[in-house]
Specification:
This protein is α/β, with parallel strands linked by helices and about 475 residues long. Helix content is about 30%, strand content about 25%. It binds N-(aminocarbonyl)-beta-alanine and zinc ion (ZN) (2 copies).
């Protein structure tokens, strides 16, 4: 029997902040309370530290083939980086190829993750090519522990589905307690705007944002919510970036619809001005980074619960994939943003951010008084567990929960840099940004993965975790 006793920490849940000890026995939280003792336990002094549940990020893309290359973090390097940032559970997207069954896609994603995973994880199933056989596969996802499907209303001629597909999948999913997630941008309009921009010789990264206006996102969010109403289905809108999309969600919620959404940490901090820099390709993601007033709308939305989760949409690429970087002592080189040098439409879409998420929400949300530390826990740990069928096994500090536990130093004074981060890419969008609080010890089911700068995680030790259907509507 393996026991760890974390003494004298300040425990933080979505509801409370309190002084207590926390006892872990065989990977599970066995007791919380004052002056605990346990024979044979390894004692860890957490005086001056905050003890939080492990973060949950429901939106990552490890090893995703995309934009003519592949996301540069795999399930080992991405999980390692996530853990260093205080995240102990990720949900990735098993993406159906054209003509493929959903179960074959899931098998392929198990093939990518089985031997590499270090934190626990699950998959959403991305539907890109619907027929009767594929529709008939959907109910089984609920009993197989993957009660979430994802559809794209953008990326025309690639991942985009039409309204009929979106509606049919959503209606079938809802009947089986499966939540539909949507990438809400109007791909048809974007396709026209991109072609016109290229024809006019507008090729720099800022045109990525100018050809994907907030109206394209607001319209698609509004349409998705309206179709969810007709399908009598719950809906979760991924990577919300702008006031127009927040307003569409808020309107649906005010009308009593079970519509929820997330933003991603980068949308609080970056704008079209970053795309105008000489290295603007670093910030090319979809939907694009927007404006200062959209950033304020997002902070309001996470505070007022119009959005329920802060994820990352971690989908990293090298800025210069023609040169090696060293990762754990090995040279690595993966084609990246240079593919779009001279044409913004060819820049692989996505950012490295899984490691920055919780420290930067703390730095710019909690430390500035925008949200409480309890709300950070709710947004980054507890709400995603509730919505995605993991609660109370994951997402909180409670007796019987998995001991996914993170000790945070609130006097850390960390500076993010590509030279020291753990994401497998050659740049950090938060290069030079300060984080006043950082994880110092990270436990996954009681196993110490991160101990200060030291890494103890073993590839393949992370577990695929079945989730419950009929997740909560928050
Ligand atoms: O730019 C992004 N977001 N890349 C990943 C794919 C997606 O749309 O989530
Ligand atoms: Zn997306
Ligand atoms: Zn994504």
């Amino acid at each position: 029997m393996k026991k760890t006793l974390i003494k004298n920490g300040t425990l933080v849940t979505a509801a409370d902040t309190f002084q207590a000890d926390l006892l872990i026995v065989d990977g599970v939280i066995a007791a919380l309370g004052r002056d605990l003792s346990a024979d044979g336990a390894e004692e860890v002094d957490a005086t001056g530290l905050y003890v939080l549940p492990g973060g949950i990020d429901v939106h990552t893309h490890f090893a995703l083939p995309f934009g003519g290359t592949v996301a540069s973090d795999d399930f080992y390097t991405g999980h390692r980086a996530a853990a260093f940032g205080g995240t102990t559970f990720c949900i990735d997207f098993a993406m159906q190829d054209k003509g493929e069954s959903l179960h074959s896609a899931v098998e392929r994603w198990h093939g990518k993750s089985n031997a590499k995973a270090v934190i626990d994880y699950s998959f959403h199933v991305g539907v890109t090519d619907l027929n009767d056989a594929v529709l008939a596969e959907i109910p089984a996802l609920a009993v197989e522990g993957m009660p979430t499907v994802k559809l794209f209303l953008a990326y025309k001629n690639k991942l985009q589905v039409d309204d009929a597909t979106f509606f049919s999948v959503m209606r079938t999913a809802a009947k089986h307690g499966i939540l539909t997630m949507v990438h809400a941008e109007n791909g048809d309009v974007i396709d026209i705007l991109v072609k016109e921009a290229i024809a006019a010789g507008h090729l720099t990264p800022e045109w990525h944002a100018l050809t994907r206006p907030d109206w394209a996102e607001g319209e698609a969010t509004n349409r998705a919510a309206a179709m969810a109403a007709m399908a009598e289905a719950p809906l979760y809108v991924v990577h919300v970036t702008c006031a127009k999309s927040v307003n569409a969600i808020a309107t649906a919620r005010a009308a009593g619809q079970p519509v929820m959404g997330e933003t991603c940490v980068q949308y609080f901090h970056f704008s079209i001005d970053n795309l105008r820099q000489p290295d603007g390709a670093k910030w090319v993601c979809s939907p694009p980074v927007r404006t200062a007033s959209d950033q304020e709308a997002l902070w309001r939305a996470v505070r007022d619960n119009d959005l329920q989760h802060i994820s990352t949409d971690h989908c990293p690429f090298f800025m210069d994939g023609t040169r090696d970087i060293m990762y754990e002592g090995q040279p690595v080189r993966i084609a990246g943003k240079e593919l779009g040098a001279g044409d913004f439409s060819k820049i692989p879409n996505g950012l490295p951010v899984v490691e920055n998420r919780m420290p930067m929400v703390w730095a710019t949300g909690v430390a500035t008084g925008r949200i409480s530390l309890n709300r950070l826990v709710e947004l980054c740990c507890t709400n995603p567990a509730r919505i995605f069928g993991l609660y109370p096994k994951k997402g909180t500090l409670a007796v019987g929960a998995d001991a996914d536990v993170v000790l945070w130093d609130p006097k850390a004074d960390h500076t993010f840099s590509a030279a020291t981060h753990h994401m497998r890419t050659d740049y950090d969008i938060y290069e030079g940004w300060k984080a006043p609080a950082m994880p110092v010890k990270v436990y996954r089911r009681g196993e110490l993965l991160v101990d200060g700068p030291a890494w103890h995680g073993k590839p393949g030790s992370g577990a695929f975790t079945a989730r419950k259907a009929h997740g909560e509507v928050l």
